[in-house]
Amino acid sequence: MTKTLSDLAEGMRDIDFTMLTTHGPDGTIAARPMSNNREVDYDGDSYYFTWGSSLMVADIGRDPRVALTFQGKAGLLGMRPFFVAVEGEADVVKDKARFEEHWSKGLDRWFEQGVDTPNLVMIHVRATRIHYWDGEDEGEVKLAAAAVA
Fold this sequence. Notes:
- 15% of the residues lie in helices and 40% in strands.
- It is built from three helices and seven strands.
């Protein structure tokens, strides 16, 4: 049974963490865990806050192609495992007004001055291809090519 983006969003609803993968300066793969801050209405766009001086931000500046991997406790149709792999393009956002659209109080733990924290940036990932697997079914959802701003 082919899943839609809406089906995947429902399965991803309770997944808070992803592994965000970038390409290092020499082409190596670098991955790190990131929280989606409980933004659970997935529409192909993901948002993550970090420091502007991080290696991840430098990687995205060189090559905006990224991957996200998600693992859920239960599958779409019961207790099977649920995995999602997203390919997309990222851009680094420095606009405080956009920060406020995606800010949650739990972020204050890492960024004590909120959206006014010096060197704060937001990574916006636009999915172009999503592959899913739930133990029995697997498939792909292709989205329009991302245009990084």
